[in-house]
């Protein structure tokens, strides 16, 4: 594959990490950084428990490990979550990603619209394999308020031409989408494989990779909130085994979830580099590539004697 055939909208994982760092900087340029909830850089939302693919680096590769389930975030659920975020003045990023394929939620475009109406200052992103996309659906998504579309390419470079044509016909600007190269040689495309907090064991993650992370703080639970299809909030977006539910955004306030006792207990271990708690003790994710400003905000919040739990 020649580099000249790859459009500027195509990024490998290293490029994507830089893109995330730029978004992080933009976030902290917009907020004071003095409020505890300013630490939430991203709210990742799992809108469905369905996926039409079984990628080798995903737990869904083995249905016995992670089966498809016909479960979805509802419009009503989206309204409740979006209203709670709006009440707290959230201006960060809403990432529709999670454990499934967003476009398999029958109400996905309507859910995007709900968040756009309630959170006009937030950035709305969607990750998709693109299999269900067509010109009209693309138009509908962006008319609903989607800001950024990430299309993960699993089959090969020929997918770029297919999607470029579709996106052009839908009049989607080049700054509104990115292709993420996930086919073939993972190392060539900078795809950083991880074992999904130990849920999968077939991708060749070495034990010493996990061993070498001991003593190293992890920033994930300090900057990203993961909301499941039913409103449950997991302590980490890498917790595919759903071992730690720290609250629920359908029934609790944003602050009470983000600083819940279970979340605080886990964070205080990770602040010291203590990864002994499951699933952290099985996870191969570094967790320190970005998120340090959020880490510092939360740490400062805990250092205040009135907030110690």
List the helices and strands and how they pair.
Layout: E1 10-11, H1 13-30, E2 42-45, H2 75-87, E3 93-96, H3 108-118, E4 123-128, H4 135-143, E5 148-153, H5 158-169, E6 177-181, H6 207-211, H7 220-223, E7 224-227, E8 232-234, E9 245-248, H8 254-258, H9 261-271, H10 292-303
Parallel strand pairs: 1-6, 2-3, 2-7, 3-4, 4-5, 5-6
Antiparallel strand pairs: 7-8, 8-9
Helix pairs in contact: 2-3, 3-4
Question: Any overview of this molecule?
Answer:
By secondary structure, the protein is an alpha/beta fold. 32% of the residues lie in helices and 12% in strands. A 9-stranded mixed β-sheet has the order 1-6-5-4-3-2-7-8-9. Helix 2 (75-87) packs parallel to helix 3 (108-118) and helix 3 packs parallel to helix 4. It is globular and about 55 Å long. It starts with 9 loop residues before the first strand and ends in a 6-residue tail after the last helix.
* Largest β sheet strand count, sense and barrel closure: 9 strands, mixed
- Estimate percent helicity: 25-40%
| Total number of strands | 9
Specify Rg, calculated over alpha carbons.
Answer: 19 Å
Question: Helices and strands, in N-to-C order?
Answer: EHEHEHEHEHEHHEEEHHH
Number of helices: 10
On the 0 to 100 scale, the average pLDDT is 92
N/C terminus separation: 55 Å
């Amino acid at each position: 594959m020649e580099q000249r055939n790859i459009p500027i909208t195509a990024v490998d994982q290293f490029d994507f990490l830089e893109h995330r760092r730029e978004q992080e900087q933009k976030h902290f340029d917009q907020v004071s950084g003095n409020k505890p909830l300013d630490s939430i850089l991203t709210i990742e939302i799992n809108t469905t428990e369905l996926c039409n693919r079984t990628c080798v680096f995903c737990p869904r590769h083995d249905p016995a490990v992670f089966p498809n389930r016909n479960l979805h975030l509802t419009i009503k659920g989206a309204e409740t979550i979006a209203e709670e975020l709006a009440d707290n003045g959230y201006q960060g990023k809403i990432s529709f990603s999670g454990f499934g394929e967003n476009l398999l939620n029958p109400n996905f475009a309507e859910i995007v619209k709900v968040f756009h109406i309630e959170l006009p200052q937030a950035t709305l992103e969607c990750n998709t394999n693109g299999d269900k996309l067509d010109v009209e659906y693309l138009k509908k998504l962006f008319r609903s308020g989607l800001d950024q579309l990430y299309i993960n390419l699993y089959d090969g470079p020929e997918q770029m031409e297919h999607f470029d044509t579709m996106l052009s016909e839908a009049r989607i600007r080049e700054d509104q989408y990115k292709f993420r190269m996930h086919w073939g040689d993972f190392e060539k495309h900078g795809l950083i494989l991880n074992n999904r907090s130990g849920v999968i064991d077939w991708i060749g993650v070495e034990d010493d990779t996990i061993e070498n992370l001991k003593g190293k703080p992890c920033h994930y639970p300090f900057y990203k909130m993961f909301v499941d299809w039913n409103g449950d909030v997991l302590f980490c977006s890498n917790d595919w085994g759903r071992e730690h539910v720290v609250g629920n955004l359908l029934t609790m306030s944003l602050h009470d979830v983000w600083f819940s006792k279970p979340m605080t207990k886990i964070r205080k271990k990770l602040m010291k580099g203590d990864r002994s708690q499951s699933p952290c003790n099985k996870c191969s994710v570094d967790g320190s590539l970005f998120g340090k400003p959020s880490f510092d905000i939360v740490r400062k919040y805990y250092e205040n004697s009135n907030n110690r739990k």
